[in-house]
Amino acid sequence: MIIVHEAWAVTWEAADRSTLTPKLPELSGAMFFPTWTPGEGIPKDAYDPDHMKTDSRSDEEYFGRTFWYFLVVGIPIISILLISSCVCCCVSNSRSNRRKKAAARDSIVQPNSVNRNTT
């Protein structure tokens, strides 16, 4: 079993920055970065969402990801819908045929029994 503790949210007052060691990096209000090693700086605008560079992925990568999602999610959903539609149609057709046969069987007029004992 793997146990993972809840992440800590570390905050500090602006006045406390000068007394903290090691020196904290300069952060904007909305900056988010995954890790920081004490003593290392953070490149300017590297994790600032206001100044983040546009995504440099090519169209082929997006096509690949979209195609992968289609294979993993789309194909199973489409398959389930097609199979359930076929099952519903077969069940409906079978019930319809059964009803028609029952109606035909009920509508057949039974021949009157002939009395052979005539006097």
Walkthrough of the structure:
- The radius of gyration is 38 Å and the shape is rod-shaped.
- It has 119 residues and is an all-alpha fold.
- It has 2 domains: 45 residues, no CATH class; 52 residues.
- The protein is built from 1 helix and no strands.
- 41% of the residues lie in helices and 0% in strands.
* Overall pLDDT score: 77
Question: Which of globular, elongated, flat, extended, rod-shaped describes the shape?
Answer: rod-shaped
Poorly predicted runs are: none
- Count up the helices: 1
% residues in beta strands: under 5%
- The termini sit apart by 98 Å
Computed CA radius of gyration, to the nearest angstrom: 38 Å
Helical proportion? 40-55%
What's the number of structural domains?
Answer: 2
* Biggest beta sheet attributes: none
Order of H and E elements: H
Structural class by helix and strand composition: mainly alpha
Q: Tally of extended strands?
A: 0
List the helices and strands and how they pair.
Blueprint: H1 59-107
Concise account of the structure shown:
By secondary structure, this protein is mainly alpha-helical. Helix content is 41%, strand content 0%. It is rod-shaped.
